[in-house]
TrEMBL record:
This is Sporulation-control protein. It comes from the Bacteria. InterPro entries: Spore_0_M. PANTHER family: SPORULATION-CONTROL PROTEIN SPO0M (PTHR40053).
Amino acid sequence: MFNRFLASIGIGSATLDTLLEKARYTPGEEVRGVVRMKGGSVEQDVDTIEVSVMTEYIKESNDHKHNVTVALARFHVSSPFKLRAGEQKEVPFSFVLPLETPLTIGRAPVWVKTELAIRGALDPGDNDRIEVVPTQGMATVLEAVEQLGFRLRKAECEYASRIGGRFPFVQEFEFVPTSGSYRGRLDELEVIFYNRGQELEVLLQIDRKARGLAGLFAEAMDMDETFVRVRFSNSELAAGPYSISQELANVISRYA
């Protein structure tokens, strides 16, 4: 009886360890792994094993920025079962990493959170960081932007409920022109990706450099920024970075 009480407050309860097949993924890729559990000092009823994909974004309120943790997806990977005292058990699982998963570039952590939902006890958990890298299409666009003379300055996930998709944030890739024809014409170029499966939608925020009194006024009123949406099919992206850079140049030059 005393051991059951201790388990209810987390002492002598079951433990778990999540092992992923690998540590690097792209959005939309299948994630496979196994949950290893070891029973504690008493038998416990496990209602379910829940695996979640977690990340953070920055939200500003009252002139202060703070991090908000959000679950991009939750998966129940087991039905209820009993975990006997000292028993070792493994449960395999797989799921598809959401297309909205941010890339782990800059300050954008992504991790897989595993929890045992144990009846009448604290739920043990495990967190496993993963690396999320660009899909081939995203990598093509990023390389195309660099070919136009831009350098990536920072990448952040920020609250943006109006332009977000299923979630109230977007990941912004902020570029600055360091060479080429846009140096001196643009302050920065921000790139936001929306993975659509058969196509990649790109939102460009084109920030023009202030010129003269009118330009300074426009900059002060945020009128020097233009948002443009561009869509690339998978076949267009397969043509490579140079082809995409020419299409981007045609779009950017209309607003630079």
